What we know:
The structure holds two protein chains of two kinds.
Chain A (H helix, E strand, L loop, with lengths): L3 E12 L2 E12 L3 E5 L6 H8 L7 E9 L2 E2 L5 H7 L4 E4 L3 H4 L6 H13 L3 H14 L5 H4 L9 H14 L4 E5 L7 H18 L2 E6 L2 H7 L2 E6 L2 E7 H6 L4 H9 L47 E4 L2 E3 L4 H8 L1
Parallel strand pairs in A: 3-8, 3-9, 6-7, 7-8
Antiparallel strand pairs in A: 1-2, 1-4, 4-5, 9-10, 10-12, 11-12
Helix pairs in contact in A: 4-5, 4-7, 5-7, 7-8
Chain B lengths: L1 E15 L6 E15 L3 E5 L6 H8 L7 E6 L2 E2 L6 H7 L2 E4 L13 H11 L5 H14 L16 H13 L5 E5 L7 H18 L2 E6 L2 H7 L2 E6 L2 E6 L1 H6 L4 H8 L49 E2 L5 E2 L6 H6 L1
Parallel strand pairs in B: 3-8, 3-9, 6-7, 7-8
Antiparallel strand pairs in B: 1-2, 1-4, 4-5, 9-10, 10-12, 11-12
Helix pairs in contact in B: 3-4, 3-5, 4-5
Amino acid sequence: MGESLVSLRDLQVRFNGVPALRGVDLDLAKGEAVGLVGESGSGKSVTWLSALGLLPNTAVTTGSVRLGNTELLDAPAATLDDVRGGRIAMIFQDPASALNPVQRVGRQVVEALRLHRGMDGAQAWAEARRLFELVGIPDAGRRLEVYPHEMSGGQNQRVMIAMALAGQPELLVADEPTTALDATIQAQILDLLRRLQQETGMALVLISHDLGVVADMCSRVAVMYAGRIVEQAPTDLLFAHPAHPYTQGLLGALPDMVGPKRRLAAIPGSVPEPWNLPQGCAFAPRCEHADEACLEMPAFVDIEDGHIAACVHATARVRELA
Amino acid sequence: MSLLTLTDVARAYTTRRGLLGRSTEVRAVDSISLNVTAGRTLGVVGESGCGKSTTGRLMLGLERPSEGSVLFEEQPMPAPGTTEWRALRKRMQLVFQDPLGAMDRRLTIAQQVEEPLIIHGIGTASERAERVAALLVDVGLRADQAARHPHELSGGQRQRAVLARALATDPALLVCDEPVSALDVSIQAQVVNMLTDLQAARGIAMVFISHDLKVVRQVSHSVAVMYLGRIVEQGDPEALFADPVHPYTRALVSAIPVPGPRRIPRIVLTGDPPNPADRPTGCAFHPRCPVAVARCAVEIPQLRTMDDGRDVACHLAEPQARMAA
């Protein structure tokens, strides 16, 4: 792994006493693309919202979030203001609701440039135009003058990306950036993110429920379940030898695009309610391999190089499958 | 046997651009011919605005076609709101993406499932209660969940309840509009398996409308790909997705992010899907098409049958050329 950029240690979040995040450790190197997958409520968005201090006051966050030498958790507002939109930028699923509907898109990008790069006037507008061209908005000069509702969802997401790039971030956190978009537009936006990451050398965290999207974009993947990371590995290893039964279940539940049709291997039951978590491994009640050993909270097991899984049976299972 | 037949169906709306703008005709669906066979599933795929949901509404008689005909069991579809149409609604049901929006939040699950039986005057109160209990078992809900309200169930359980309600009148046709798109992967697989099982057990015909090609391939016996109101490619799902012919289908299939190596090199289309109110001339896909020729901007391509039996609407699709490739 290269030089460390962000490291999360035992990050925990509770909303009114209900645990949403139950101890997340994650390291991110400079320029690296890491995927965070999991189903709704698994904590993949909360991880980054809490790291950036974007959660409401009802959330109690503990642990540590370090960006280089700076601790972000409980950092003064001024520090966070510099980091958010500056060193770390975030884009969301629904660009239309993240943009100000009554302000021209160009002005919104210029505002970001003023805040994070101290640019004004003609200089800022020229930079905004350059960013629009960089993210592939055709006729950039004129598109600076339109309102969000005059653009398509894909174009609005490009505006959001331009705004995120305004602060020249070291890390872009993209939370389901293409989920609301059509298939062909999703391909365009993923292509754009890949190109920008290569050109600017920024790190990328891609939060997605879609294993395919993450496989396409990221070199490393962390799978989350019920507020914890349950498996983490280089992308090719994760898809070749998934070790955690939940990861195996997720892959089995996906229909194939080629080959003979098979019955989908659905994971029985549903995700536990956060206020009613089972003892020990949270996945055990849905897991076909569960036994008494699973009543203890499983520690991470080393499967192979850089591949860890939080399952007491993981090593044995992988050997069995190999 | 063909249960539902659409022949050259078009649905046009008039819209006005701006407050004083001239009214223009928007053809949400144009020259569509489709067959739904009893006990089989027809998948309809395409991006937003391609007319797939309008097609579903036309199939159920919720919309009248502006042109062409819709036949259900070889009889013309009655006009919506008429007594004949209401009676026919018992035979065909609709399932949407958002189960919460399709349910009455103040009624219990059992009451919602019973409602269609009451509306269509089926059974006595005790027979209905028995039927409701059996339906809930069929969709995999527990008996104690019958007394729950929609907000007390998870998304997957709600979609099961909506399905139980749709099945209450024992329909011959189920039109599912993005039925699993709002569900998590593990729950999606449960509902997809359940749909397949219900079809096998009851012989229901299904129309499965979705943007998710993988799910459509999983459930469908035939598939139609739509672009801007027209069918561009239609045929057997395995063949069609393994070796798409129309450039739009090719781009669509190649755009699916998959773990592992891809079969078709990725094609990233430029531009957005066009506005139906501002339809490009000729083939509607030509401004985004990587292989378009001059003819594509002028002449609308008609569906032609290829050697393997699929239909493709592209000037460049040649049955022989495909065999060589």
